[in-house]
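pipeline/complex-builder :: batch 7 item 3
reading input block
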Amino acid sequence: MEFILNPWPWFISGPLIALVMALLLYFGKTFGMSTNLRTFCAIGGAGKFSNFFRFNWKDQSWNLTVVIGAVIGGFIATQYLSNDSKTDLNPITIEELKTMGFSNSGANLVPNEMYNWEAVSTTKGLLLLIIGGFLVGFGTRYAGGCTSGHAITGLSSLQKPSLLAVIGFFIGGLIMANVILPLIFNS
Amino acid sequence: MVGIFFGIVLVKSEAVSWYRIYEMFRFQSIHMYGIIGTAIASGILFLQLSKKAHLKNLEGVDLFVPKKEEGFIRTLVGGSIFGLGWALIGACPGPMYILLGTGVFSMLIVIAAAVLGTFLYGILKDKLPH
């Protein structure tokens, strides 16, 4: 049991993620989480504004059940399959984050300094979540996929657009983590 | 069921951790590179073998992966915009829902903003270079 309750090593997790992709392909579907954002738009009536959202979203209902499953999976994993071990981060990372005002790094999955209600109730905190979410939603559709669709599925099937997209993910991610985040959290 | 499995794997692998994403983009750990690398390596192996063996899906046709849309600008620029958001909030479109399940309810704000971002893309789609 200890083996399951502790965080899983990367060489176990990676192949299991590939298994998720393989299962979805076997069921005649594909692994692409960001498509659901488009589906939500379609359900909300966005078809009135752009033909990009004019499709039969019921064809995507299987993907919405993956979303519901993911929420349930997150619940089960934290409630029943975890102990209180911290994320084993690089000490340099922890030290670095401390100077940026992040305490207790790795104790939770997301920093309280960004996600607890106290942080969210400040203008800055709220804006960060909205801007971040917005960039993800806009960028993923522009690029034609996210980590699951491009990085995992696209690269596994050796597609060139996915390689370019993943290079893009890293350009953006490197700029944010190395340049912008230190500017946001230097106070 | 696949979704539940996906959710569990991503929590247990810590791939939904904001800190792990930060660490990855600072090149301070092998963890995320290991996960993504072994996922892709297993994925390539699986797809190549299934092609050779003409593995059928549940509907009885050969397994196939839909082709991604081509476009130099859309993938690089869109990808970079996505990357900026990913490293800021520490979650991509799968982990958003998973983290919600782990009890991070403020993630609903992020999800709502992501839906809005997708909506705006849909509006601007024909005006953007691809």
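note: The first helix of chain A runs from residue 2 to 5.
queue -> next item
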